[in-house]
Amino acid sequence: MIVGVHGIAQQQVTRQQLVRDWDPAPTGSIDLRQIEAAAAGEQFGPPGDPDFTLAFYGHLFPTPAGPGRLSATDGAGLDDLHPDEIEDMLTAARQVLTDDEIAAAERQPPLAGHLNTPLLLQAVLRALDARFGRAAGVLYLGTLRQVRRYLRDPGTKARVDAIVDATVTPDTRVLVGHALGSVVALEYVRRHPEHDLDLLLTLGSPLGLTSVQTRLPVPFFGTHTGLPPTVATWVNVRDRRDPVASAGDLGAWWSGVDDRHVENGADAHSVHRYLGKPQSHSAIDAVKTRGARQVA
Fold first, then answer.
1. Interior CA angle at 159 toward 157 and 161, to 5°?
2. Which CATH topology does 2-60+152-295 take?
3. Where in the chain is the domain with CATH 3.40.50.1820?
4. Mean pLDDT over residues 191-197, rounded?
5. SS (H, E, C) 109-139
6. For the whole model, what pTM was predicted?
7. Whether the Cβ atoms of residue 131 and residue 19 lie closer than 8 Å to each other
């Protein structure tokens, strides 16, 4: 069983719509391996795709609305931030931007659509866009805001965690987390020391940010042992142009993580592009192969 945990900005879609981005990509490669094995007269595990399901919690996050706010699809809404949120965002931005980049952005005119964003963050948005491309700043800060809410709001965290708990079954062997979903997936691992996983696959993860690490209920969970003890393999896949994963490889925190780099083109944070890469689906294939050999 494979369980996916999605990222931010899913307030305007249904679970069924989101599954279309998730389901074909991880299982399609396994189909191909089965076909190739059959052509060679070999068996590659039991016939059929492994079961896949998605833990959907997008409806738990508020949708920005009203004049001057950002589109609901970008998941941010940066004109109603509390001072402590602003400080957290500035701290996280300084981990991935240089002082020179921020200073250069301060000399540029404001971005259209961001006039209501606090002045301290407008330069950060422009600097992130200059480094990673159009709308990268909104994606980065929007992700941080929802990660922060998940980690700081006990009610939200309890509801998200309950959905994941209800989705993961005892026979779940692979947990896949994208962006915020990688934080949620790691929290599942921490909260369930009785559940061994063959693979934790994280995609476009913000877990490399110090501000995220220190906000975890158990800060730096699993880092002292190289991997969380119940995770056999942790593969982290990131595009260096993905602003959400711009803090760097997770192996800097967990020495046992297998970091893999991909090129997702113009949509660097796309979960569909992440899942379609060999670096991602080969990790799932390896679990399938091990299972087949154990059965044999």
1. 65
2. Rossmann fold (3.40.50)
3. 2-60+152-295
4. 97
5. CCCCCCCCCCHHHHHHHHHHHHHHCCCHHHH
6. 0.82
7. no
